[in-house]
Amino acid sequence: MVDDMYREVILDHYKNPRGHGVIEGADAQAEGVNPLCGDEVTIYVQFEEDGETIDEVKFSGRGCAISQASTSMLMEIVKGRKADEIAALPKEELLEEIGIPLTPIRLKCALLGLGVLKVALHRAKGTALPDEWAGLDELELR
Amino acid sequence: MAVTARSTLDAQKLRADFPIFEQKIHGKPLAYLDSAASSQKPRQVLDVMREFYETSYANVHRGVYTLSERATEGYEGAREKARAFVNAPSAREVIFTRSATESINLVAYAWGLDNLGPGDLVLVTELEHHSNFVPWQYIAKRTGADFRMLPIDDGGELRLDGLDELTADTQVKVVATNLVSNSLGTVNPVERLGSWAHAQGAIMVVDAAQGAPHHRIDVQALDCDFLAFSSHKLCGPTGVGALWGRAELLEQMAPFNTGGHMIRSVRLEETTWGDLPYKFEAGTQPIAEAVGFGAAMDYVNEVGLAAIEEYESELVAYTLDRFAELGGITSYGPPPERRAGIVSFNVEGIHPHDVAQVLDSEGVAIRAGHHCCQPLMTRLGIAATNRASYYLYSVPDEIDRLVEGLRKVRKILG
């Protein structure tokens, strides 16, 4: 099972994270912490001139291989897509991409980045976070 | 396997008492290195509980019938065992609770709400488990009292030399500490802290949840006023803990929970409280669990707390030696002879969750996280650690497998 979890593509994203860094003066930004293990992720989004299309997206922070790799994969998934589409992105799309069996605890690691990105986008657009993520906004994100 | 057998404890033999070790995890024998979170249970405890349910179970203190008397004998017999376990002067000073956490909440609410106010100080330590931190922080806020934390030094020991300066401008009313740190294993100098607390006119509250399984406790020698411990960390069932408190304080205190069983008389105008310890035992208690708790204390006594403590020190020393060989491991806490069987560590560059996940695939169960000690993690400048913790059934082979597992962790994630 552990070989499934730490399969090649996960380790590759963990060791060579895509979009790792900071965007100064980003159009949208949020930071989240998983209180169980102290994983921290901050996500920065820059829109194209239309104010909708994600032109550039980066993340910083520290955490376990699963949270870092899944956030790195997320950066590749969302680049070039529309803000409202990503704000409504079903978590299954990311989980499919990650493609590994996750226990309930590790699921929180895997979804930390997506939760933070959604908060950043909803905040920037002034829209409400969907119910299934609402708990995250209060408990784990700042 | 180079543990020199100084201790008289035969862990390999004791291990056979624990049915949990008869199974395989991911096809491998279980190496259970998370006893500080909760210990496993021996057949002797499980059998006593089963037999109690099968032959002696009824509600206690109520029926005049034989079965209820038998159940009451079992329950009160467990109270006497708990009294003897911490050498309390009287069994009426021993209250059964749900857990050590509830024991501390009982003191924080029942004593704190009536005795704390603005200008008073509640002092806890940087080593506290949230169980002995959050209740005090909460009650201090509600009463307007100050709340401060006694820091530790780089070796993980309490800075007793800083006590006077830290509290110079205020009236210390409560000093709360754990006997053994659940994160670092530090055995704290409770006697000295207790004498200091009493010199300030404060009460001394000891969280012995982590201490009681590993260290002989004598509340009369400790110079404390309240001491909380629980069953599940010392081979007993979950759902029951105990609070010892000085009778004179317990008598002055208002009840914590109210309801059935804790009363003397109930009228519309007023209810009066029962005597100690029943004043603090509202509702049906965890009866069979208390009986199991008693059996667990018997079991631990038979093995011997001195032998347990010595054996755990040997396991800690062995672990640190193996870590030194392996290299790239940062470990936290005092030297082995100053701690219970706990080793908190980090593997250079690898997150504790990933370490614990890979180890699990080898059948090695360790803890990864903040261990309910976020203030301590802040002090150490880290988010989390790995923690291997031992008990009387732990064997060096499990530590060898931990070290082998760490090699695999490095191979995968390094």
Describe what you observe in this structure.
- The complex is a heterodimer of chains A (142) and B (414).
- Chain A has helices at 2-5, 8-15, 65-78, 83-87, 91-98, 104-125, 131-139, and strands spanning 28-34, 39-47, 54-62.
- Chain A is an alpha+beta fold.
- In chain A, strands 1-2-3 form a three-stranded antiparallel beta sheet, with helices on one face.
- The longest helix of chain A is centred in the last third of the chain and has 22 residues, at 104-125.
- Chain B starts with 10 loop residues before the first helix and ends with a helix.
- The longest helix of chain B has 22 residues, at 305-326.
- The radius of gyration of chain B is 22 Å and the shape is globular.
- In chain B, the strands form five sheets. In chain B, strands 4-10-9-8-7-5-6 form a seven-stranded mixed beta sheet, with helices on both faces. In chain B, strands 13-14-17-16 form a four-stranded antiparallel beta sheet, with helices on one face.
- Chain B has helices spanning 11-15, 43-55, 66-85, 100-115, 134-143, 163-167, 190-199, 219-222, 247-252, 287-303, 305-326, 352-361, 374-380, 396-413; strands at 24-25, 28-29, 31-32, 94-97, 120-125, 146-150, 171-178, 203-207, 226-230, 241-245, 263-266, 271-273, 329-332, 342-347, 364-365, 367-369, 385-389.
- Chain B is of the alpha/beta class.
- Chain A binds chain B through residues 1-3, 5-6, 11, 14, 36-40, 62-66, 106, 109, and chain B through 26, 351-354, 357-358, 360-361, 368-370, 377, 382-384, 412-413.
